[in-house]
Design a protein that fits this description.
Belongs to the ATP-dependent AMP-binding enzyme family. The chain is of the alpha/beta class. The chain has 16 helices and 26 strands. It is about 30% helix and about 25% strand. The radius of gyration is 23 Å and the shape is globular.
Length: about 525
């Protein structure tokens, strides 16, 4: 099946059940499928054929998921675009994807026009929201076309979408994700989340990002209701959880930290929540423990990349705060392999490593992409004999719990010794004055690299550089402690909340060459 079959099947099984809720709009599965069908006919009438790319440039809304499903039915390929990218960056992506059409939200019509003025051919344009008469309006267009079931020509092995990676190391790469990749991930997710037909999912992360898409796909597959938040704010998320009785949601660690530090969190009724799924970046254990204690629902972690989807899960039962030493240590892990995934760790020579030894993490599963769009050399470097080389460093323990130590590129080599920033950050986060922290390596003439911590303090809290360095020294080997600490008002992040260490390193490494 292709993902366009989701609204079709659900319209047969649960025609009057809520499917998508966005602000004041509430649509049943029957209504959603009819709207998707009308969009399929409209796109075909505008020359969109199987294999054609269609760009999507808008914020979260119900039309976003409708567009995904309509393109899947049509066999066309979605190209979700990060709306926060610059004109230059967006132009690069469009030159790569060569879309024949663009679905654009009202907020980005001006950006679309700037792209056209720069010489980019983006084909026909369909506008969502209040757009000018020069642009075809999405809602008006749906009214012109039939709602009966069109012939679905999308197949499960077809590319569903080109997801451009978050670009923490430079311009994004286009990961070609198939319908089969996402469907395979659904079954892994069902088991890990203990998902049910009655779940109500909150879509709080951007729908141009894989996290929001695989969660929406998983719960839509079951016929659940998806409540869509236009963009995340702590207050907005808390209000919709309380109002709509949300039971599950994906939140990245930065979002969870923002919720925990919202001054009025205790004024909201969050008892409907049975599970928060987290991933997409390091979840520091001190933050996790506070979240479990304060929110009180189950937590499940997923580890994977855009290119692999979820490869391991630390399920709710593994989140034991007062258990044995081994159980508490598992909070630092990414869990064990998904049902249809396999994980290896290898050394620099490609040899498999025994439990406890750090090496590069490799993943094999039905959710691994077929490759990168127009990048055959990079595809060959990254996927070898069906194994995806993640670039993450980690180790497996005797029970095959995976512990991610750090990214290869983030590892600090000081005096020939490997130092892992994530380990230092874990310690810094235990200090009650610290809100956020990032540890990087900076040039050092003697040692090659020195450890520097960039820290954001909580409102009203104070701690000096020397005090924080001494705090770290008390909790770790002295050679790992930061040599320098700089206090900032905020840390640079991409739109999905990942801290951009590349940006933090740039000013220190200009004119230098890193060995990592």
């Amino acid at each position: 099946m292709n993902l366009g079959d989701i609204p079709r099947r659900n319209s047969l099984r649960f025609p009057y059940k809520k499917a998508l809720v966005f602000g004041d709009v509430s649509l049943s599965w029957c209504q959603v499928n009819e709207r998707v069908n009308a969009l399929v006919y409209a796109l075909r009438d505008r020359g969109i054929q199987k294999g054609d790319r269609v760009g999507i440039l808008m914020e979260n809304c119900h039309q976003y998921l409708e567009t995904y499903w309509a393109l899947a039915k049509s066999g066309a390929i979605a190209v979700p675009l990060n709306y926060r990218l610059s004109i230059y960056e967006t132009k690069e992506l469009l030159c790569s994807a060569e879309p024949k059409a663009l679905i654009v939200g009202e907020e980005y019509v001006g950006k679309m026009q700037d792209l056209r003025d720069s010489g980019i051919d983006i084909g026909c344009v369909i506008g969502v929201g209040n757009v000018s008469d020069q642009i075809e309006n999405y809602e008006s267009l749906l009214l012109k076309y039939p709602t009966n079931e069109p012939e679905s020509i999308g197949k499960e092995d077809d590319i569903f979408a080109i997801f451009y990676t978050s670009g923490t190391t430079g311009l994004p790469k286009g990961a070609m994700v198939s319908n089969r990749n996402l469907e395979a991930n659904c079954f892994n997710q069902f088991y890990a989340d203990k998902s049910s037909y009655d779940d109500i999912n909150l879509v709080a992360t951007p729908l141009y990002h894989m996290g929001a898409v695989f969660m929406a796909t998983t719960y839509s597959y079951l016929g659940c209701t998806n409540n869509i938040l236009k963009h995340f704010t702590p207050r907005g998320a808390l209000e919709i959880i309380q109002r709509e009785k949300v039971t599950v949601c994906l939140l990245i660690p930065t979002m969870i930290n923002m919720l925990l530090n919202h001054p009025n969190i205790n004024n909201y009724d969050l008892t409907s929540l049975r599970l928060i799924f987290y991933g997409g970046g390091p979840m520091h254990v001190q933050v996790l423990k506070k979240a479990i204690d304060l929110i009180g629902c189950g937590f499940t972690q997923g580890y994977g990349l855009t290119e692999t989807l979820e490869a391991t899960f630390l399920v709710s039962e593994d989140h034991v705060l007062e258990g044995t030493e081994k159980q508490q240590q598992r909070l630092y892990s990414a869990g064990r392999e998904a049902l249809s995934a396999e994980v290896r760790t290898i050394d620099y020579n490609g040899n498999d490593l025994p439990p406890g030894e750090v090496g590069e993490v490799l993943i094999k599963s039905r959710s691994v992409i077929r490759g990168y769009w127009k990048m055959p050399e990079l595809t060959a470097e990254t996927i070898k004999n069906d194994w995806f080389y993640t670039g993450d460093l980690g180790y497996l323990d005797e029970e095959r719990y995976l512990f991610i130590v750090d990214r290869k590129k983030d590892m600090i080599i000081s005096g020939g010794v490997n130092i892992y920033p994530k380990e230092i950050e874990e310690v810094i986060y235990t200090n009650p004055a610290v809100l956020e922290a990032a540890v990087i390596g900076i040039p050092d003439e003697l040692w090659g690299e020195s450890v520097k911590a960039l820290v954001v303090l909580k409102d009203g809290c104070r701690i000096s550089e020397d005090e924080l360095i001494e705090y770290c020294k008390q909790h770790m080997a002295s050679y790992k402690k930061p040599k320098y600490v700089e206090f900032l008002s905020s840390l640079p992040k991409n739109p999905t909340g990942k801290i951009l260490k590349r940006v933090l390193r740039e000013k220190y490494w200009e004119g230098h060459v890193r060995s990592v």
